[in-house]
């Protein structure tokens, strides 16, 4: 029997709870940890507790429910006034018990974390706030599609986290403006400008005069033995197939330009000067490299090394703006953080994880890895000892034999580099030098974001050694093991299946890409692929994006045309039939599918496919309604179009405040241009329909043909499609905004109509 003894049952705690559901929950918890097998009849305690309940407890409260049923069975409440629950004794009707629905499990955001190589539940460290650091560009040349691959992808992820999942994202990015590549390129450009300023003659360029004083006699510069011979040796020694192919192309180009110049000089042809310029242009890289090897150490003016990155940083920002990539909340430059970098290095030394050698400071990877709580190369442990990757991480100017011999281990990397002649330098406790590559991100991110961040982003090729070294030196500085919680790496970009590399001269600049496709089309191409996988930039990829854009744009135009159908304020609310209910059901299913896709590592590819399927179902619904001579439901289609538009805005594929669809207009034009132009299009459409009606009545086929020309030839050139419906009405779909040309088209049609009537037709 489930009867409580009065002595053991203290029901007083129930009196302090006002809500019946909470009271039942508390009773259940009380009974779950006590034995209530006592006595053979209800006690006063049972009666009082029973009376406090307004009905049977929820089935979730198994102990309380069993007790309640036994008490109710032994002492029916109608026969024992002690057991009348709540106000039943007073004869009042009371609300029946209520319990919340079980509900369904809501998908939660998971991100692919390179630290675990699996999708992990995303949990920010501080509530809703997300601290995010992204590795920015090394600015020594034009930004290319490889940069776009990372920065568009991270812009998409950032927008979705902010605008869809509603996280408060604080986004920090760096600009690398001190680096071996920048130093070398700045010197090369400077020396090449000096050389060209000497205006060497064609014969001087070919003359072998190695004993001439450098730069005073330009005859020295492009000598076959001094320049071309070392290049041939380098070509012969290169084993990497991609690099060898690049060098072979350069060899062919220089040889092809050299032969005509030799012939022009020997024959004293007047085009020798032209041939000289051709050779100089083709051999520019070859010549620059040789100039730097001979005279680079003589470049001492620090401003030379700052002008180049400043220019290319400006170009980078212009490219990002053209791609509609949001600017960082904080932008850090290495040149502005040298004091912080010096202090960062000093603390790593103080913590025992670094050592000084000949004015340089190196990170002791073995000491760090052996320390409790630390582990080196968390991202790519299998790459430890990869000397090729390690040397690429140190930079071209830092892998000489003397530099390599300074290290305790070949796995150690530079925190601070002693500057050599021809390199910029800053004061430090170890002498004049400059920051290592990896240390910059640690010092700058640490200054802004503190000892731990939620997300760190970068390209796939930065995992080792750059990001692994960042992790090691940062955790050595902060003495923790969680400098980064989630590491996100975007996939590689290939060009028509081939590896893209600036050093291999196999790249497409962002400006070149934007000359062929719009920023929206490029973004759609990225959205149609996983952000962490390799993306192939090819004609097929872009054609898929273009067709997707056209498909969506057509739907938006059709919906806007339906919404322009005249109706009063009550007429827009139409009765829903089975077709509307079915489409609405599908609408919500697709929204759930999109949400699931975005929760699954922000799978935009699947999300776009679900959105495409929703549009296909909507198009089928519209076609069926029109086939039945019925108007589609305005409000339902408007809701679908609004949702799709909002999602494209979330993805960064739509700018402005247009409520539905892609904005009409070129860059710099008003986002509200469509609404401005549409009244004029409607006038033109009505006028044309009136002309067609008269022409049909008068059987003037020439005027009908002119109307067709306006519809089929003139207006499409202006980005406007005019459709003739079976019932004789027209639909105009504005897609561009050259208002003046619309006036001209309307005026031309009107004049032709007048001329036809004046001829007596």
UniProtKB/TrEMBL annotation:
> For this protein, what is the EC number?
6.1.1.16
Task: List, alphabetically, the GO terms of the cellular component aspect.
Answer: cytoplasm
The family database entries (Pfam families) matched by this protein are listed as: tRNA-synt_1e
Q: List the keywords (alphabetical).
A: Aminoacyl-tRNA synthetase, ATP-binding, Ligase, Metal-binding, Nucleotide-binding, Protein biosynthesis, Zinc
Q: Has UniProt tagged this entry with the keyword NAD?
A: no
A GO term, aspect molecular function:
metal ion binding
Task: Quote the CDD domains the UniProt record gives.
Answer: CysRS_core, GST_C_CysRS_N
The task this protein performs is described as: Catalyzes the ATP-dependent ligation of cysteine to tRNA(Cys).
Write down what this protein is called. Cysteine--tRNA ligase, cytoplasmic
Query: What species is given as this protein's source?
Result: Astyanax mexicanus (Blind cave fish)
């Amino acid at each position: 029997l489930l009867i409580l003894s009065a002595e053991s049952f203290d029901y007083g705690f129930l009196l302090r709870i006002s809500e019946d559901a909470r009271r039942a929950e508390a009773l259940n918890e009380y009974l779950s940890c006590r034995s209530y097998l006592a006595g053979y009849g209800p006690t006063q305690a049972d009666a009082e507790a029973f009376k406090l309940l307004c009905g049977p407890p929820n089935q979730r409260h198994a102990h309380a429910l069993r007790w309640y049923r036994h008490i109710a069975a032994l002492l029916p409440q109608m026969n024992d006034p002690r057991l009348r629950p709540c106000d039943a004794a007073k004869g009042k009707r009371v609300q029946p018990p209520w319990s919340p629905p079980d509900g369904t499990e809501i998908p939660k955001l998971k991100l692919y974390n390179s630290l675990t190589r699996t999708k992990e539940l995303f949990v920010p460290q501080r509530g809703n706030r997300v601290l995010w650091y992204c590795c920015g560009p090394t600015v020594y040349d034009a930004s290319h599609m490889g940069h776009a691959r990372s920065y568009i992808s991270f812009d998409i992820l950032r927008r979705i986290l902010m605008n869809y999942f509603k996280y408060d994202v604080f986004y920090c990015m760096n600009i690398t403006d001190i680096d071996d590549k920048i130093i070398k390129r700045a010197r090369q450009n400077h020396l090449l400008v000096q050389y060209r300023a000497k205006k060497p003659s064609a014969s001087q360029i070919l003359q072998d005069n190695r004993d001439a004083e450098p730069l005073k006699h330009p005859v020295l510069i492009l000598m076959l033995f001094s320049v071309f011979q070392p290049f041939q040796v380098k070509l012969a020694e290169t084993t990497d197939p991609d690099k060898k192919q690049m060098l072979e192309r350069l060899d062919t180009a220089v040889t092809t330009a050299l032969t005509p110049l030799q012939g022009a000089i020997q024959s004293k042809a007047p085009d020798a000067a032209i041939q000289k310029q051709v050779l100089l242009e083709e051999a520019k890289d070859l010549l620059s490299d040789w100039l730097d090897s001979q005279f680079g150490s003589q470049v001492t003016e620090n401003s030379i090394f700052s002008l180049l990155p400043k220019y290319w940083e400006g170009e980078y920002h212009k490219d990002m703006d053209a791609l509609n990539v949001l600017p960082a909340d904080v932008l850090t430059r290495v040149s502005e953080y040298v004091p912080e970098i010096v202090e960062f290095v000093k603390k790593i030394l103080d913590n025992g994880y670094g050592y000084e050698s000949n004015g340089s400071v190196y990170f002791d990877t073995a000491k760090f890895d052996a320390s409790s709580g630390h582990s080196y190369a968390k991202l790519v442990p299998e790459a430890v000892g990869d000397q090729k990757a390690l040397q690429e991480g140190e930079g071209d100017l830092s892998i000489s034999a003397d530099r390599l011999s300074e290290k305790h281990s070949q796995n150690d990397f530079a925190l601070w580099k002693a500057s050599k002649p021809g390199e910029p330098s800053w004061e430090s406790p170890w002498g004049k030098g400059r920051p290592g590559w990896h240390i910059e991100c640690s010092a700058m991110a640490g200054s802004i974001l503190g000892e731990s961040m939620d997300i760190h982003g970068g390209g796939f090729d930065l995992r080792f050694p750059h990001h692994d070294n960042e992790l090691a030196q940062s955790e050595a500085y902060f003495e923790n093991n969680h400098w980064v919680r989630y590491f996100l790496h975007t996939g590689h970009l290939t060009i028509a299946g081939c590896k893209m590399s600036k050093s291999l001269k196999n790249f497409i600049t962002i400006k070149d890409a934007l000359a062929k496709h719009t920023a929206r089309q490029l973004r759609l191409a990225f959205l149609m692929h996983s952000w962490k996988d390799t993306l192939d930039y090819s004609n097929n990829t872009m054609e898929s994006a273009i067709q997707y854009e056209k498909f969506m744009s057509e739907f938006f135009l059709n919906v806007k045309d339906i919404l322009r159908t005249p109706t009063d304020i009550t007429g827009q609310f139409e009765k829903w039939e089975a077709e509307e209910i079915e489409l609405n059901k599908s609408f919500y299913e697709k929204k759930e599918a999109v949400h699931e896709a975005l929760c699954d590592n922000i799978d935009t590819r699947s999300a776009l496919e679900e959105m495409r399927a929703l549009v296909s179902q909507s198009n089928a619904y519209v076609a069926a309604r029109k086939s039945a001579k019925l108007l589609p439901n305005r409000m339902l289609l408007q809701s679908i179009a609004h949702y799709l538009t909002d999602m494209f805005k979330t993805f960064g594929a739509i700018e402005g405040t247009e409520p539905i669809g892609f904005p009409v207009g070129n860059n710099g034009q008003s986002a509200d241009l469509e609404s401005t132009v549409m009244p004029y299009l409607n006038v033109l459409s009505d006028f044309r329909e009136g002309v067609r009606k008269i022409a049909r009545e008068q059987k003037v086929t020439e005027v009908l043909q002119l109307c067709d020309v306006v519809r089929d030839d003139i207006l499409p050139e202006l980005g406007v499609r005019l459709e003739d419906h079976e019932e004789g009405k027209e639909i105009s779909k504005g897609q561009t905004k050259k208002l003046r040309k619309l006036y001209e088209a309307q005026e031309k049609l009107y004049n032709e109509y007048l001329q036809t009537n004046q001829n007596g037709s």
